[in-house]
């Protein structure tokens, strides 16, 4: 029997209690430091995409050192492989699928809204818990706040887990139409459509009373209708004539809330979440007599479909056989796989304890195997008569770029087994 792991949408449900304590305040970020104009990355050559080995990174104009982000302390859960992604800014490379997609979305908004939307793509990804959660009304006991789901630098500071973290400050600064693109970070499961760092684009539009009053509709309906029209138009701009559907959902920051799904390759694919902004967010940020809509879309998910990219790890590849296939302004060129190296599967069974979580397991595996791990899947799960539960996970190792040797894989698996025991305190079977 194969039990596939469930990928919960971070903001779609409320569950579990998690503590939030206040130890030490840590404020690295200037509220925001990018200009409203998008920055061209023409001068970045294709081959020089590796993060420079610098002791200090410049994140949206904020100077950050490794010690600012990673500390050996239980209130910090940022691993090396995540630190190494900071400052990469794939979405600002005009020849990268994510940059090409971002620019195509910009084009849609510029054309349809006469350049009214202000664009931000260089806001610092290190934000306060207040920005990431409180300002957008995420309940104190929401699962997304837990150390199991979010990367914490300290109890008050996180790597943003969504671009909604910037809504409040931009509103307060007086912006009424804006797009925010950025890298976001989530502890998550491992498979071809989930990666702990991915990219989102947030859209936000505020309406003044004259706008809905003239329509005869009530403010919320007016806003929801406009939102759907805008996003259906965007989907057609990107995909051409596609079948799409709206699904009602829940987000703490919008009401009503929707997800847009697109029918592609015989499946419904969730591409974005959106809704009519909660009045409380507008009121707290100086918009007392307005209504607004917001959306957050996953750039990798859209790009995988548009460019036929089969695995989310490929976005991070420096292999020229990947990077050379995309050019500035070329939306929807289909990716031709340059190789199909076989995966190698290794199974591992252990008795879990109360604190075991799949995200923690995935962090251990990712920490050792990096991008050589393709999938971690629960394939068996049972509880014995004493009430102790056993899990069997199947780990798929595969490089996108070369064949792996048996020796290399055995070595990785050996290290995984060792660390799963020592770090997660489970008993291997
Ligand atoms: C959010 O992050 C909300 N902030 C979106 C939003 C904004 C709603 C404004 C309302 C108003 P969600 O967790 O569903 O929602 O993520 C949004 C999108 O990000 C998803 O639709 C999906 O396309 C993408 N996504 C989510 N998790 C991952 C992941 N691990 N890897 C790649 N893409 C992901
Ligand atoms: Mg979702």
TrEMBL record:
Which UniProt keywords are given for this protein, alphabetically ordered?
A: Aminoacyl-tRNA synthetase, ATP-binding, Ligase, Mitochondrion, Nucleotide-binding, Protein biosynthesis, Transit peptide
Q: Where in the cell is it found?
A: Mitochondrion matrix
Chief location: mitochondrion
Q: Which GO terms describe its cellular component?
A: chloroplast; mitochondrial matrix
- Known SMART domains for this protein? FDX-ACB
- One Pfam family hit: tRNA-synt_2d
Segments forming domain FDX-ACB: 339-429
Q: Which GO terms describe its biological process?
A: phenylalanyl-tRNA aminoacylation
Which GO molecular function entries does the Swiss-Prot or TrEMBL record give? ATP binding; phenylalanine-tRNA ligase activity; tRNA binding
InterPro entries the UniProt entry points to: aa-tRNA-synth_II, aa-tRNA-synth_II/BPL/LPL, Fdx_antiC-bd, Fdx_antiC-bd_sf, Phe-tRNA-synth_IIc_mito, Phenylalanyl-tRNA_Synthase
Enzyme class at the top of the EC tree: ligase
What's this chain's function? Is responsible for the charging of tRNA(Phe) with phenylalanine in mitochondrial translation.
**Name of the protein in question:** phenylalanine--tRNA ligase
Which organism does this record belong to? Cajanus cajan
